[in-house]
């Protein structure tokens, strides 16, 4: 039997081996099981980062795994600060709602009220639209903007919106940028100053910083599968980097209504226009029992799962993006006394280099690993091959990308999304007949795939 399956079975019964000891150490079984899970994740090269689990204001588990950057010279500590990615947007939205609760702002306030020099469409867009990503604003033009002045100039030159506000959903960072501008307009302070006075200092957040340089103490660098540090170029300011302990303070403050009321928090946790879309705070279940949010930036990846009823917080912060969400949900299952899944190595990462060198050898290696180490690698996840296919497509390795997508549809023949991806690769390579064939197959498997439908109409007809 695979040694990790044996370990899994052992962990499952850990909570029953010493009831007397557990009476004096109520989190013992959780601590030991989580530690074994995290150690396996680290040993398999799946997790490099910090993990923290608290329950009822008590520490269940906390540990650091790995290094501050790709050089592997300095180990992470609990004081290490990470970019939390989109989790950082929470600080902006909550700041807006703090001002709304004070009566300084209102959800129906229009952008035109704040003297930002925006075109006539600003008469239609409200704060409520911005909070729910339904403003009609496009995504920031990352190829042409270099700083916040460019952001504003682009918006001032924007002739029209993508759609009428409130009629569609479009996730974009322009919404975040404008919220910061609104805060600065009404408070006459920078967003950073407002945050320090109203959130960071009151919550006693100690290991936080805005826009740190590479040499800032305790700052982590994100790195890729080749242990090369990412460029981490940020064109906007006011992004908070935070330690895992301070992120926990933030979550606890939200859960215990220290910043905004429970009613306001619920409003932020549900998209007010589209039931199945997320918000700036991630999302919640229908009964508002949990709050889950994840974020990515370069190779940084963070997630937290917070459960209101049991006052349970599970936080993972990584500077080496891999399987952070999957691991977090396994930790959650452990804390809920449920069966959990041991993380597996990424087959995408395992075969990528060979595919770059020789696609045929890469595919052979895939099958060899599937034969010898099926229980170790994530062969059952279609996103692994899909991600590799798009990776190769982004490198303009068209034929190699097509071969990986062909492998994907042969491994997962009922997955319509993979046929859509293969169709895109053929379309990019101007093989329109094959593109059409795969888009039709995708639509057959998933009649709701509007992209496939649009591409079928877009493909040149003979």
TrEMBL record:
Keyword line: Hydrolase, Repeat, Signal, TPR repeat
Domain Beta-lactamase-related: 33-271
TPR repeat locations: 416-449
GO molecular function: hydrolase activity
Superkingdom: Bacteria
Statement: the UniProt record of this protein carries the keyword Transmembrane helix: no
Transmembrane domains' residue ranges: none
Signal peptide feature range: 1-19
Keyword Hydrolase (UniProt): yes
Pfam families hit by this protein: Beta-lactamase, TPR_2
Name listed for the protein in its UniProt record: Serine hydrolase
Source organism per UniProt: Olleya sediminilitoris
